Amino acid sequence: MAQQLKSVFTRYNKGLALAATSTAALALSTLYPATTKCDDEILHAPSYPWDHLGLVSSYDCAALRRGFQVYRQVCATCHSIERIHYRELVGVTHTTEELVEMASEVDVVDGPNDEGEMFERPGKLTDALPSPYQNEEQGRLANGGSSS
Predict the structure, then answer these.
(1) Which of helix, strand or coil describes residue 122?
(2) CB atoms within 10 A of CB 85
(3) 54/77 Cα distance (integer angstroms)
(4) 99-147: pLDDT as tens digits
(5) What's the CA gap between 119 and 66, in Å, rounded?
(6) What is the pTM for the complete model shown?
(7) Is the alpha carbon torsion for 25, 26, 30, 33 positive or negative?
(8) Minimal CA–CA distance to 130: which of 69, 65, 85, 75?
């Protein structure tokens, strides 16, 4: 019985504390109305009609292919998109055959083999796009301390 009364009073005290906090917050918000009102002179984000968001719409694959070409020729010397795999580009920017050829141009460290050693093999569609640096520290060093 004493335990039940103790739990009732504990809950009652928590409820009382919550009510007091809520009352204090309401009182402060009415004393300082400028902090609770929104400013009408804020800049809202523009809304654009994206063509690829419709039910039967799609991306502009030619533009994506050009963008990927620019990435490979310009951006890939410093930046990586190692979380993108070659297989994710099939049918979007290139055909399967083109991507198999593109992936095979890259040597990927794989392993260990039967002797426990790492080895290099030609890339496959399941491999991620290569990073321009061997590790993150080398990338930071090359980019003046910034990881990109």
Answers:
(1) strand
(2) 17
(3) 35
(4) 999 999 999 999 898 999 999 999 999 999 998 888 888 888 888 877 6
(5) 33
(6) 0.58
(7) positive
(8) 85
